[in-house]
Amino acid sequence: MLLPEQIECELVAFCDTSSRGYASCVYVISRNDRGQAKVRLVTTKSKSSPRQTIKYPEVLINGAPKEPRKWEGVFDAVDRFRSCPQMLFSFVIGTEDCLVLDVYSPEYAKPTDRLPVMVFIHGGAYYYGTKAHYDPEYLVTKNVIVVVINYRLNVLGFLCVNGISNLGLRDQVAALMWVKNNIASFGGDPDNVTLCGQSAGASAVTMHMITQFSKGLFHKVIAMSGSLFTPWAFNLEPLGPALKDARKIAPANTEQDVYKIFMNSRVDDLIRATQDTSVNPKYFKYSPCIDSNTSDPFFHDTPYNIFKRGEFNKVPMMIGHAEVEGILFYGLTDNEFVGKLNEEFYERLPSIFSWCSENNKRNISAILRSHYFGERRITKDFVTGLVQYYSDWIIHGTHNEFLKLLTTLSDKPVYNYIFSYQGYRNFAKLISGVRMKETTHSDDVFYVFKPAGLPLLLSRADRTFIDRLTLMITNFMKFGDPTPSPSAQLPIRWPRSNASIALRLAETLQVVSSSCGSEEFRDVLCTYGRAGHVPCESAALCDPA
């Protein structure tokens, strides 16, 4: 399909007062009878899903928020691989001018069609990733519209000091606002938006359920391996890691020092200083923070407190995980880190325990080490213990707790799944190098999206599974039910779920019992986790550090 080279439109701005200390104005496209601005469109090679790339930010250095203003010019949208600053091997890639989104629509979509819309938030530990990795052709061919977005990462998106907070999440809100105001022009229905995310993106979509900023901007949720209850989802002590990283650039002792250093440093220097190449429980040091003490908080209370009061957007939800999430993270862990677990286990606890005293950290370490590793010396050869440890703190340890509370407080349908399919697209399992039969973290994502830039093979069975999985997802987008009526392709009804049942997604669909995470990990979390930050009523026995 050939699209018109230009669209007549006007740019409207939403401004955030803090982006590395200056105003960040997100410019969004809306049609105007006068047609004051022009945006050039590009398409993919696929006739089924034309891609229209929209640029949506401008940064005004040292400026206050500005009134919406017109922009005259042509945005070059040919470079679909524009990403926010991040590390790739030993190189810093990306640009601060990265807030762009791609709109994929069926070939003959018209403004009057009002098709269901998905907004996808990529994963990557809040450190890595870009919209360009995810080609939604499999979904779009089923007559829906998909929007994939960029958002600021690492210290640029999740520094929490001096009143700056959760800029990456605010970028996501700006994209959702753009969709609400403009997606009808592309044939989409602004009143039927499914917010979907994977890994860190999954934790983010559940965060949007509890913030006032996202209210009314989406109507269904899909969370693939993550939620706001996962131990890494929030950074409880954001100043500590920021101080440590700031000192790699210049002397720093206070929050104000950190602010000045980060505001005045080159992007390359910031990314290199904040890079942590080891995969460990402290890996997510720049992630969303509780900012209730700021002038414009994204979260007015702790996530658990907000959620347990029922103050969240109650919408239909699909949520699930792989069989053994920790396999991938075991494969990415280096021998040096594993070796240090023997003498310094307490220093490498999940950040959810960072607020505890040294004595309590040692108690936690003794319990966890005994449970996962016994009395043996920990080495990279201890596959089972490390995989289980990673699985619990990455996803499994809190998945059922989120489901229990969600299904208790919301009358909307919830569909829980366990991803079990094995095929050529299990890329995460492949790169982990671990010879275990179970699926792992991120194995599911490339059965939903085509992997841009990765020439992964497809078998006939893979194609059949992709067609079935994306049919369930688009059914959910359209009807709020992934299996609305039995058919040859979907011979089973996916029942409304709770924490005890799930649909196993494999070559054969099967309803199974769902048990997730070890009791020992949950007991430690509830005994030593900070009250209001972990899904437990009896938390906070820790003495603060």
UniProtKB/TrEMBL annotation:
Enzyme class: hydrolase
Record's keyword annotation contains Disulfide bond: yes
Domain Carboxylesterase type B: from-to ranges: 64-497
EC number: 3.1.1.-
Source domain of life: Eukaryota
Pfam family, one: COesterase
GO MF annotations, alphabetized: carboxylic ester hydrolase activity
Assigned keywords, A-Z: Disulfide bond, Glycoprotein, Hydrolase, Serine esterase
Family from the record: Belongs to the 'GDXG' lipolytic enzyme family.
Descriptive protein name: Carboxylic ester hydrolase
High-level lineage: Eukaryota, Metazoa, Ecdysozoa, Arthropoda, Hexapoda
